[in-house]
Task: inverse folding
């Protein structure tokens, strides 16, 4: 069994978010991290590896420095890593990104027993589209919002989080699962893992590596192959300070009701 985990390097938006004058994100001036949901996806894969001996392959599409993130995931316990990188891939929207990642996964090899884990959502693009799109392009089943995953012979059972409860779904492999933070607590890199990370396999897939796949075509990848057009991007105005009402007595409730009525909320 092989578990392929798609991981994205994202700007750390917990600090100051730098925006260019044209409204685009100034990625170069911000530190990068592994997308938080993807850390949960990696941890889920490593837990399955601990229990079943599965092989864990981490894959990212990004610029060459994304190799550093992949080395950290190898230090956590992943077995090998694939960096999908090339100028032809730059400017890809979610459609083109999933097209390229699906081709990369085909190149890695997706067997009957295998599963693909993605994060539910990246904290920069925030669309939650890439995982489901990869599944569509590979024509395999998918389950999103996984809060628990169990391997069960030729299928896996996923506890899927809904707004007001859970749904348990049994799905045949190969399949794709998108993971959420409720799934687990990602482990730290170990000292031994850090020492080992540099002796593990790191493959680079460029345009030449993937160009024979029917999914890879100049009209379906990169900026030219991206059907999304961004008309305008802007920083929303800062919200004013909130108002605090102390106490839970009748007078405070009446005051709250008065304020809400004044603002036509009730
Ligand atoms: C016209 C256009 C041009 C763009 N050009 C660029 C560009 O040049 N460089 C750039 O970085 N972004 C670019 N973007 C943004 C880029 O399209 C998205 O960041 C990317 O497609 C992922 O979408 P998302 O962030 O919404 O991911 P989501 O769909 O929210 O991500 C869900 C999950 O998919 C997986 N995933 C997503 N992206 C990757 C990845 N790259 N590698 C591995 N796994 C991944 C992860 O598991 C992630 O948790 C561009 C967007 C548009 C619309």
Result:
């Amino acid at each position: 069994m092989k578990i392929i985990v798609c991981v994205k390097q994202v700007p750390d938006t917990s600090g100051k978010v730098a925006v260019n004058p044209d409204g685009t994100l100034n990625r170069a001036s911000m530190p990068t991290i592994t997308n938080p949901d993807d850390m949960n996806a990696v941890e889920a894969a490593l837990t399955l590896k601990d229990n079943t001996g599965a092989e864990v392959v981490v894959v990212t599409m990004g610029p060459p420095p994304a190799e550093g993130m992949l080395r950290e995931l190898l230090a956590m316990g992943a077995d090998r890593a694939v960096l999908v990188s090339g100028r032809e891939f730059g400017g890809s929207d979610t459609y083109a990104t999933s097209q390229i990642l699906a081709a990369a996964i085909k190149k890695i090899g997706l067997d009957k027993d295998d599963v693909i884990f993605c994060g539910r959502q990246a904290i920069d693009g925030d669309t939650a589209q890439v995982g489901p799109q990869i599944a569509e392009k590979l024509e395999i089943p998918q389950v999103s919002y996984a809060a628990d995953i169990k391997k069960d012979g030729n299928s896996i059972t996923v506890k899927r989080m809904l707004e007001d409860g859970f749904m348990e779904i049994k799905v045949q492999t190969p399949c794709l699962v998108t993971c959420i933070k409720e799934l687990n607590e990602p482990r730290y890199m170990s000292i031994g893992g850090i020492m080992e990370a540099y002796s593990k396999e790191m493959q680079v897939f460029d345009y030449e590596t993937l160009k024979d796949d029917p999914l890879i075509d100049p009209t379906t990848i990169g900026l030219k192959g991206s059907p999304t057009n961004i008309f305008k991007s802007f920083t929303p105005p800062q919200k004013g300070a909130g108002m605090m009402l102390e106490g839970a007595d009748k007078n405070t409730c009446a005051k709250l009701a008065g304020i809400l009525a004044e603002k036509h909320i009730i």
The two ends are 56 Å apart (CA to CA).
